Amino acid sequence: MDDGRWHLVKKWLLFILIFLLLPIEALAAPQKIFDYAELLTPDEVSQLESLATTYSDQHRVDIIVLTTNQTDGKSIEQYMGDFVDEQGYDDTVIITIDMLERDVMVAGFGKGEKYVDNYRGDIILEEITPYLSDGNFFGAFREFIEQANYYLGVEPEVRSTPNPSPNPSPGYNSDVNYNRNYQPAQDNIFFELWFQLLASVVVGGVTVGIMGYYSSGRKTTNARTYLDVGRSAVTASYDRFVRKTVTKTKKPSSNNKGGGGGFGGGGGGGFTGGGRSFSGSKGKF
């Protein structure tokens, strides 16, 4: 084989090799675990990447874990928001950990904001906080991913029973702590038998009363029936003092130092610097 033909064969072989490698690169899953604080081992990162990728592909929502040792003076909301803006995520559920301030935040964007709203974010945060307090970051992130997967599969208008942790942190009673803020949906009062009976009695009573009023004899005379307006006139008038009543009302002090109670934890959604809205719940661990 002459040099010209061999050179052409090498070019084709190189082209085929590049062509075969392209699908591998294209199918490589985008990163889900950003452990800048180095809280996880390489094996733990690999396990969480696999789990998050599986659920992200299933729901078409990126499930992201983000950790840092410091936020450059930003609040955890600002740090998380800037990260999402820079990465260009659309539909996302993300947990952010700031080890310096011991802050944690769960947030949702796009479809994630709809399915993991503030209420569900509170539930997820309450479920994973015991893991974080115990220093079990792998357990906390695994539980976050499982909880995100659960709520992404439940329509947001259905206030479902909180998803209990299958692997509770040692010493943590999920039945006591996890459900304390959960308020089950109330039955529609209009379908209650006692309400329907009461409404029937009231409607029947009103109907009978109206019928009785119009069927009985009506009074057709009054004080002016026998009054001769042409010959009647006022002959005198006078005022009679009956009694005097005085009431006193205390004027509220403008220096009232009392204050209302506060709500610990929770938080809520907001907007990123790029104008993206998000749901959210934050707390300490």
UniProtKB/TrEMBL annotation:
Domain TPM: 33-148
This protein's UniProt keywords: Membrane, Transmembrane, Transmembrane helix
Stretches the record annotates as Disordered: 247-285
Biased composition range(s): Gly residues: 257-277
Record Pfam families: TPM_phosphatase (PF04536)
Organism annotation: Anaerobacillus alkaliphilus
Membrane-spanning intervals of the chain: 193-214
Coiled coil feature spans: none
Name this protein carries in UniProt: TPM domain-containing protein
